[in-house]
Amino acid sequence: MGTTPEVNGNNVADEETLGGSIHFGTAEAVEYVRSLTDVGAMTRLLHECIAHQRAVDVELDELLSQRTDLDRHLLQLQRSSDVRELDLAQSRVGNALLRIDAIVERANSLEGVHRALEAEDYESASRYVQTFLQIDAQYKDSGSDQLQRDRLLAAKKQLEGIVHSTLHPAGCGGGGIAVVCWILEESDCNEVKNGV
């Protein structure tokens, strides 16, 4: 068997070895324990091992007591993250619904302007033009609506032609004619601002 350092001719572990240089759980500590032959050194080492085990148990208990708090905090973070994701998804859905409403309203405005022109209701036609242009300005990023835009601009030019040739010479004196003139002038200003 292995030997331990001798003190005064006795085969015992020295104070340095027992005083903290043993790191329990390592291969060197196991080898050192196997090499012990002195009962006193073994007893002291056993007491140190028990004290170390108790210290490890206390540290483990402290760590385990934090687990509940950490689990609760993690759950709150997950819930918070889920709520943020749900809010973001809800916002996206809301924006999509607004956009769908705008697309429907825009299509209705285009239909309305053509019906109003056929019925010679120029005031309604001008309001449909204004509504369409406001929606178009708000959702300008969708290029797939160019056909609708072109159709509306053609209807607007037709309405302007009617107003300028038929109604305007009489003057935009009052009533519905004044509203049509104002709406067409306002939409022209907005188109210049928006680059239409």
From TrEMBL:
Pfam families cross-referenced by the UniProt entry: COG4_N (PF20663)
Occurrences of domain Conserved oligomeric Golgi complex subunit 4 N-terminal (ranges): 80-138
InterPro entries associated with the record: COG4 (IPR048682), COG4_N (IPR048680)
Coiled coil: 60-120
Key words of the record: Coiled coil
Coiled coil keyword on record: yes
Protein name as catalogued: Conserved oligomeric Golgi complex subunit 4 N-terminal domain-containing protein
